[in-house]
Amino acid sequence: MVEQERRWNLVWALAPYGLLAVATGVYLATRPVTPVPLVVVALLAGWHWWFVMAHPSWWERRTGLMLLYFGGMLAGTVALLLHDGAFAIFVPACYGLAFLALPGWLAYAGVVVVSGLWLVPQGTDVGATLMVNLGVTTPMAVLIGWIIRVMEREVIRRREMHERLTVLSAENARLQVLEERARVAREMHDTVAQGLTGIVTQLEVAEELGLAEPVRGRIATARRLARDSLVEVRRSIEALRPGPLRDAGLGEAVERAVVAWREEHGVPASCTVTGDARPLSPETEVAVLRAAQEALANAGRHARASRVDVTLSYMEDVVVLDVLDDGAGFDPSVRGFGLTAMEERVALLGGTVTVESAPGSGTAVNVTLDAR
């Protein structure tokens, strides 16, 4: 879609050269050649190249420069028309240039100005020309330009929607994988690991019953195998946890996330851990870490913050994550997929997410989860 848009922009940018070449060819073939119009043609070609071809980003971002460009094109066209009416072939290109160079209502004003070019050639029937222009040419140019503008806006809207859907789909797929890994880890912990623990306990009790030596040997072997299997199951559960939590506690994992974000964005960011750190359930640690990563990602993508502060607080019965930035802020009632996914993940564990923000006032994200 983006490539198609680029091709159409290139066609619009090159079209004036085609009409200018045709008009110049007609002039050379039917009139005595003089250098003045050829010099003006060369200047127009260079003017168009500099403002449109060499600097395509100016089209919709630099209105002042585009007004200068459009005025220069009109002046050059007037000079050509005063010299010879054959250059009227180039006038239709100026209609397109009005919509190419000028934003909003200025494009329609430019079309009206271009209509006046038909009056410039010597010997023009002013009355008939005005009637044709006002009754047919100008309205048609305005209508075609309006249709093209509507189509451009629709193409841009669809492209942006496609990009958003692609990002959301990738994020959703990632979250589904993480959720499935967490579910499998929970199932293994609650079934296989707990079952093996029970088997080990029962075998230890059986060993103390004073059974015959051969039976005791078998029981000892079974207990050893059950313990080894329990160790392997616990390793598998740990492997299913997010990478940062495999070899570090939650506080250290959050601090690593902050350091990585600070290095990536070059923005001052701090991480503070308060209270007595203690092991939490794997699901709780994953939820807190993901919430910290999502809040930091939002601060980097949208907030344009100059500072971010992250605080992880271990309290008596809850663990609290606070992420504050001094960025652009937003309307908390309009939330993207990331914040929604964060809220859903935390809610599944009985926790809460609070977002305080306003345009221009920074953002504060608070995540509270049961730590018992």
From TrEMBL:
Pfam families: HATPase_c (PF02518), HisKA_3 (PF07730). The keyword Kinase applies. PROSITE patterns: HIS_KIN (PS50109). Residues 288-372 form the Histidine kinase domain. Keywords: Kinase, Membrane, Transferase, Transmembrane, Transmembrane helix, Two-component regulatory system. Gene3D superfamilies: 1.20.5.1930, Histidine kinase-like ATPase, C-terminal domain. SMART domains: HATPase_c. The chain crosses the membrane at residues 12-29, 36-52, 64-82, 94-120, 126-148. The keyword Glycoprotein does not apply. This is Histidine kinase domain-containing protein.
